[in-house]
Design goal:
This protein has helices at residues 3-16, 39-46, 50-57, 66-75, 80-90, 108-116, 136-141, 155-161, 165-168, 172-189, 194-206, 208-215, 264-274, 300-303; strands at 122-125, 131-134, 225-231, 235-245, 253-258. The protein is of the alpha+beta class. The protein has 2 domains: 3-90, lambda repressor-like DNA-binding domains (434 Repressor (Amino-terminal Domain)), CATH 1.10.260.40; 108-303, Beta-Lactamase. It has a 5-stranded antiparallel β-sheet. The longest helix is centred in the middle third of the chain and has 18 residues, at 172-189. It is elongated and about 65 Å long. The two termini are 34 Å apart.
Length: 316
């Protein structure tokens, strides 16, 4: 993805959502040709010339100072995530075209942590929303990750291309918008990631909803909140989710779900946790497959965990 084109589209989308009165300007008479702030209005408020701002929006002013971009972000009322995204697009690092960047490796300690969280659905999310590890409760609550190929174990792909996701997530539109915002944030972080670009292209071709939301240029980081789900076996749940960034494992996130103690959702999770326990634990089975960095994924019989590319038990 071309950061220069992304930069222009992002700035235009942020201008379009603001009205003159939002930034303290009197609304001029007559009908506006385009919605939102005009370039000359934004330039005046940011303290630059119209010609200079036009060059910024066209991606032709790569030497602009951070102070200029901060002023533009302030006028556009960007939140912290949006501002950081703007700065990455405006001042990209050196291009690293070629082999796709490797996903972070899943440490054995993280594998053990997932397995220890018996009553808490939890999974590990890598670059481009790839699901790199999960525990039994995450599979029981969300999707049967083990039954899918490595390529299919991707939350954005599951949200938009898996029909059951529209029933599972009671507020599917919100979940879809969140997935697109996070995927676009990753695209700004790694513009040379060929596999991420191919994922965006595939979803754009196969999902009209994805195309519409992608065009909005929204960005969002993983955080915390509440998700309402409609599970086919235990019914409706209202669960809090938390996102834990792992400082020693850049690009790797731990996502957990939990219910308020004593609530019907907590009871539903308890029932889900006990499902099939009498028959003994079931290990996911999936064939070896090539990972994004050319290494093989390992079956559960070889590594005794549910993580792709981890260091446990396979002799690497």
């Amino acid at each position: 993805m071309d950061p220069r084109a992304e930069l222009g589209a992002f700035l235009r989308s942020r201008r379009a959502r603001l009205k003159p009165e939002d930034v303290g300007l009197a609304r001029s008479g007559g009908r506006r040709r385009v919605p939102g702030l005009r370039r000359e209005e934004l330039a005046m408020l940011a303290g630059v010339s119209v010609a200079y701002y036009t060059r910024l929006e066209q991606g032709h002013a790569r030497n602009a100072s951070r102070e200029v971009w901060e002023a533009v972000a302030r006028v556009l009322r960007l939140d912290e995530t949006e501002r950081d995204h703007l700065l990455r697009l405006a001042r990209p690092g050196p291009s690293r075209r070629g082999a796709p960047p490797r996903q972070p490796r899943v440490r054995q300690e993280l594998v053990q942590l997932l397995e220890a969280m018996e009553g808490v659905p939890a999974y590990l999310l890598g670059r481009g929303m790839d699901v790199l590890g999960w525990n039994r409760m995450a599979s029981a609550l969300l999707f049967d990750f083990a039954a899918r190929s490595r390529r299919e174990r991707n939350m954005a792909r599951l949200v938009f291309l898996e029909p059951s996701s529209r029933d599972l997530f009671a507020e599917w539109q919100g979940k879809a918008r969140e997935a697109v915002g996070y995927l676009r944030l990753d695209a700004g972080r790694w513009p040379d990631d060929r596999i991420l670009s191919e994922l965006v292209g595939e979803l754009s071709m196969k999902s009209e909803d994805f195309r519409r939301l992608w065009a909005e240029q929204a960005v969002a980081d993983k955080g915390h909140g509440t998700k309402r789900l409609h599970h086919p076996f235990v019914g409706d749940l209202s669960l809090a989710y938390e996102t834990f960034q792992l400082p020693s494992d850049p690009g790797l996130y731990l996502i957990t779900y939990h219910a308020e103690p004593g609530s019907p959702s907590a009871e539903a999770l308890r029932l889900l946790a006990s499902w099939g326990v009498d028959d003994g634990p079931t290990e996911p089975r999936f064939p070896k497959a090539e990972s994004r960095d050319g290494h093989e994924d390992w079956s559960s019989e070889q590594m005794h965990c549910r993580c792709v590319g981890c260091v446990a038990g396979h002799g690497r």
